[in-house]
Design goal:
Purple Acid Phosphatase, chain A, domain 2, four-stranded parallel β-sheet, two-stranded antiparallel ribbon, globular, UPF0046_metallophosphoest
Length: 112
């Protein structure tokens, strides 16, 4: 399985991932977004990031796994609200695990 891992996109998805972008994602079977979807954790930032990631995940055979990062403050303040913003097509790991393609993944977004 080919895994593509990104992180620290900090609400720059429009700038980073357009067709004319300087960042090109390779093809793969699974995308992992390992945190920091947002810069400041503001509600408006969460409106765009998860839906964009859901669209991006369509390019991967096994979709995408999302783990909140230290800038995704909503995930710490209100984990249920953050999880509700993640489209059902994505796998959100919050101190939980999942098996995909015979591999096990664990996500722990808030780790002291």
């Amino acid at each position: 399985m080919k895994i593509v891992c990104i992180s620290d996109t900090h609400s720059q998805q429009g700038e980073l991932f357009t067709t004319s972008s300087r960042l090109k994602l390779p093809e793969g079977d699974l995308l992992i977004q390992a945190g920091d979807l947002t810069s400041q954790g503001r509600p408006a930032e969460y409106a765009a990031a998860p839906s964009w990631l859901g669209t991006l995940a369509e390019r991967f055979t096994h979709g995408a796994v999302v783990i909140a990062g230290n800038h995704d403050f909503l995930a710490e303040r209100d984990p249920e609200a953050f999880a509700a913003l993640v489209p059902p097509s994505l796998t959100y790991l919050n101190d939980s695990g999942v098996e995909i393609g015979g591999l096990r993944f664990w996500g722990s977004p808030i780790t002291p």
